[in-house]
């Protein structure tokens, strides 16, 4: 039996393949009521991914394709490295921080190898490996289930681990950042864990190259009003530069 999130992901896949869907067809496909399918389509519409039509819905925008971590690591490498270097300057001796999994946040980890008296919690296996022998870093790795595509640890055990701690800063990697829909990710369990991270940190810092602006993935982490700082590269559009500043977000350009 599919849960709601899995069913909506599947409906979105059908939309991407066909361009439009009918409620009656989806009722037959998923074995649920028309009321349930209409609720699913409304949820996709609220995320800007679909537009309701008579008897169904049409695709509004194609969600970004999820790549595995090796593929992601080769995309916008120079921008990510500069973003990581700038982010590292925000970490002070004595800080307790969370570094989310990802290929932009791994750049931050590389620049923290010489940090002094910093405690890092991470759900990223690659980030933990990078900092495992850093002498000035006390490393905490969340428990949980390893998602091999992203080398991220997630699930209820990872979320429970966070509840015992309070952090000064969260460095968050994202798959999409949209002025209307906030910061998003492809995977439900990652979004849930990221949301818990937001709750445990005093300051939320998003690390993203400019290609992620205007993208909306299926699962929202938080709205932008919860974000304090965004570090990105110089190719950010004037629209997003102005929009983020209007929201009161500190925008740091890594160039």
What do you see in this structure?
- The chain is of the alpha/beta class.
- It has 2 domains: 4-59, Winged helix-like DNA-binding domain superfamily/Winged helix DNA-binding domain (Arc Repressor Mutant, subunit A, Orthogonal Bundle); 69-254, 3-Layer(aba) Sandwich (Rossmann fold), CATH 3.40.50.1360.
- 37% of the residues lie in helices and 26% in strands.
- The chain has helices at 4-18, 23-30, 34-46, 69-73, 77-88, 105-110, 125-131, 156-162, 188-200, 238-246, and strands at 20-22, 50-53, 56-59, 96-99, 118-122, 137-141, 145-147, 152-154, 167-173, 176-178, 182-185, 201-207, 219-222, 229-233, 250-254.
- The strands form 4 sheets. The chain has a 7-stranded parallel β-sheet with strand order 6-5-4-9-12-14-15, sandwiched between helices. Strands 1-3-2 form a 3-stranded antiparallel β-sheet. A 3-stranded antiparallel β-sheet has the order 10-11-13.
- The chain is globular, with a radius of gyration of 19 Å.
- The termini are far apart.
- The mean pLDDT is 89.
Which descriptors would you attach to this protein?
alpha/beta, Arc Repressor Mutant, subunit A, Rossmann fold, seven-stranded parallel beta sheet, globular, 2 domains, three-stranded antiparallel beta sheet, 15 strands
């Amino acid at each position: 039996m599919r849960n709601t999130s899995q069913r909506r992901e599947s409906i979105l896949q059908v939309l991407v393949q066909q361009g439009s869907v009918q409620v009656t067809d989806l009722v037959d496909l998923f074995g649920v009521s028309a009321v349930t399918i209409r609720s699913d389509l409304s949820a996709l519409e609220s995320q800007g991914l679909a537009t309701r039509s008579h008897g169904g819905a049409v695709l509004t925008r194609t969600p970004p394709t999820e790549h595995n971590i090796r593929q992601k690591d080769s995309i916008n490498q120079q921008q990510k490295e500069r973003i990581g270097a700038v982010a590292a300057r925000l970490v002070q001796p004595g800080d307790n921080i969370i570094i989310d999994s990802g290929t932009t946040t791994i750049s931050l980890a590389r620049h923290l190898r010489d940090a002094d008296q910093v405690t890092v919690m991470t759900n990223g296996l690659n980030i933990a490996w990078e900092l495992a022998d850093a002498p000035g870093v006390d490393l905490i790795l969340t428990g949980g289930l390893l998602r091999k595509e992203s080398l991220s640890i997630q699930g209820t055990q990872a979320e429970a681990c966070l509840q015992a701690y309070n952090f000064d800063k969260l460095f968050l990697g994202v798959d999409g950042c949209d002025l209307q829909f906030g910061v998003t990710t492809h995977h439900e369990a990652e979004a849930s864990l990221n949301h818990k991270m937001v709750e445990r940190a005093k300051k939320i810092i998003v690390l993203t190259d400019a290609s992620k602006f205007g993208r909306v993935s299926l699962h929202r982490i938080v709205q932008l009003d919860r974000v304090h700082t965004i570090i990105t590269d110089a190719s950010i559009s004037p629209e997003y530069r102005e929009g983020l500043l209007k929201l009161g977000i500190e925008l740091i350009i890594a160039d």
